[in-house]
């Protein structure tokens, strides 16, 4: 592996002329390739080159591959294949290629009708650049139709956001590992460029190793002089929402407000709209939106039709708005590397942009989840492999079939299959997934190392939120930037917050947000499949045993209910005011639900799934009084329940521990099943089945707290 300290390259006069023409077309008549950009382009003009560029956002990494593509195409090479993670990035890149005089195209879910003509143009040589996602690259149909036809013909392979190739990075994606398969299919003389702005030394070494031992690594300083970083501390989760509502109109230009969860993005956007209406236009942006809607919102922000997008990390890599004036984080990301990547959206084409982080002690729970969310659980993997064993090589298993076979959630099945494909244990074919015959073993030391790295990164973010030292310097150091030094302009260097960020949220704003958020409707979708395994039964839950769609009073870590939860979900006697708020919340949820009941409940049955029998009973009594409902009881034995049970084991615990005390009290009635708290919904699912077996006509679940 080489770097710029020992390796420099220059372009011939002819090649430099082509490169300069590309740069002028993209960045203006006065633009020229910088020395380090020229080094990268010159290297990529040579056969078998492997180049890894780690440079700050806005450095001009894409200019390198456009210039290299133009040179190679002029010299008769085949098209460039760009592997890129986001549709928004692809759209920007297609436009940039056009300005550079190159014809680029992308194959994605939004342009299926164009695939045939694009593939024809690709084969005929009319397309200079093809952009694809790593997921598309891993698709067997794409491989058969497109990659096989390009075998040996690709003129340049570009791996954008290459940190995602490494499972030591903050954004590892199993599909990115399929890029190595493409490398093997390439003509060995095809140059390869990998680019990223967010790779520390360990990730850089890992990616470079995957590219090849002769990889040229070009690292540059990562400080961003246009960004003024600040930490706004000592805010509760609810106060953070109010702070954004109050301060958003004062922030410069338009920008992005990041949240850690989809729920927070949607709820904060609703709060801003409720208080400011059309005066401060915003929208929620999450990965769950249709691609066309995401594209519309990206364009609206780019055109300054919106003050801000309230977004999850789905809006990050690749989104390019040079005059983005601010980035605010409501909650700290778990990694300084991912934080650097997200704040890098701001200030790319302007001299000053405001960056504010609003941390809370509630963030740690989200960090803990993300630290282990992608680590395979051996028991679940083995259950999945057992399910696959029931299918032969000529009968691939589909994801829905494996979900039904194993009782595992579909998203978990999809992730594990991709991870197993990286290990060569399974293979994706056109009609599903098959075993390869290779055994799987859990590499505990490797995964313990990954979790350890993630926890150390979380410690760095704690140091960032405490203001231990210059904020920009700390981010640079987390990326192993040797040029890290105090920036002189962040809130730590200045010793205070800049003027637009200092004011505390108004009390009236806090109360308005509480009223709004407590009035939200949270639908509780019933489980549809039995888990198999230790539970025994698997497959679809019969309709005659299922619950109706229900409602949740408190969803996850809802900040508007935080103090109420502390005052009621306790081993001590519930705080009276908090208990009254919870009773009122349950009645309000029932009132909003009333219009969509299949039939009005006439019996309420409490279920102390989390062990809060007194609390659940008091709320059930209150609901029964207000709604003039009868009462019936379940007996609940929680023996054997722990938070780390598998899905099947937990369902078995509830099957053995829940009994309908008096079946005659529920027979023929519509039952309101009122449960205290659950994350899995298995106690509700099992209790509903037992009530239906006892003759209940329908079961309507009301869950007080849906835990994350």
TrEMBL record:
Name of protein: DNA 3'-5' helicase
Record-annotated membrane-spanning stretches: none
Source organism of the structure: Kribbella steppae
One GO term (biological process): DNA recombination
Catalytic activity: Couples ATP hydrolysis with the unwinding of duplex DNA by translocating in the 3'-5' direction
Residue ranges constituting the Helicase ATP-binding domain according to the UniProt record: 42-217
GO molecular function, one term: DNA binding
Domain Helicase C-terminal, residue spans: 243-385
Lineage, broadest ranks: Bacteria, Bacillati, Actinomycetota, Actinomycetes, Propionibacteriales
